[in-house]
Amino acid sequence: MKRGDVIGGYRVVSEPTNNGGGKCVWAFAEKDGKEYFLKRFLEPKRPGVYSGIGEASKKLLLEECSAFEDRHRTIMKLLKPDASGAGNIVLAVDFFHERSTYYKITERIDTSTLETPQALAPRQKAVLLRTLGLSLRLLHDIHIVHGDLKPANVLVQKKASVQTFYTAKLIDFDDSYISGKPPERGVIAGDSLFGAPEWRRYMQGDSDVEPEYLTTKTDIFALGLMTHYYLVGALPGHSASFGSPADAVNAGRQLRIDDRLTDEMHDLVLAMTSRIPGGRPSIAMFLAALADHEVCALSRKRRAHGGPSEAGGDSLSGAAGRDARPSRVRTNLGRTSAHRRADAAPHPASAAGSASPSPEPVPDTGAAAADSDAPPRGTSRVRINLGYGPR
Ligand SMILES: Nc1ncnc2c1ncn2[C@@H]1O[C@H](COP(=O)(O)OP(=O)(O)O)[C@@H](O)[C@H]1O
Ligand SMILES: [Mg+2]
To answer: How much is the pTM?
Structure first.
């Protein structure tokens, strides 16, 4: 594939690349004066007439292709681009093969991935997370699992109005499946950094994990990690002896949630990243928890040893109040306590050497860093009942 080629009636108008994509080469394309995003799948490949392989191998390949096509067409049928509320879901408008190669076409989105989400104001973060949550609710309501939820599959669109805000466009439904009916163990895809504990065990061949166990709750685990990432710019921490959050959780460890999160958000992220899928809240609960944008505020947690909170209270509004104070830009760029604790194990995003963006939280974004003497959690706090049981 090269610029100028016409594939399935779509003319390639940019240099094909695999930037941001693992299993594809993509380019922008045009047809009838409209712009599209064209994706060329690297696999599976349809066996050609002269491919020189035996009949048995050919049959296997054709079966694989047929399952691949079925999965894509099923999702396309369930998720039509004109479905109401689907405005932030970037869906396929065409799917075909030319010779041995499969292609998928979606509308072209003029967006970028957000490099420093932690720099956004709490209200902007809430809008971003809510638009993402609404798209996901649309999927989950019809029992579709996205299957590869991660920041690279969320394109962020900046909208300038009275107040600039950001909306999330959800892309890449190529690993989607019906809840409880995932692709086979050797076929299922996903990203180990964002994958849920049960997904990890399933793909590793753990026979205790039946296919029915892989549900929309796998997306909730990924969304929990992403929420933490959008709020502070890094994934929750875990011991360096684990390659991913899911591995740590499968070993019975709790992820280290950034201390600056409001208690409601801390509890929400922790519940979303539960080992047991049933312990994770639904997407509706996630949206309900985000109704008030102040849950997305970060607190400074500055306290004297053993003394009361600097803000004189620990409620949700207290946290927001601290953020509303004149910014105390820290000149000391040294690591914070939250960082020091996390240093025992690097943030998984960096530890895994993943392509996922994982900048460290920056201390001068208005969401100031935690100080060394942050109090332990669990003191009196105003709580929103999220409707899920104790962890
Ligand atoms: N509709 C779109 N409009 C513009 N860019 C897109 C669109 N869809 C995807 N991209 C870009 O292409 C990259 C790869 O696309 P994606 O569907 O995620 O492929 P892969 O399955 O290989 O991960 C994305 O990270 C994004 O930068
Ligand atoms: Mg992708």
So the answer is: 0.78
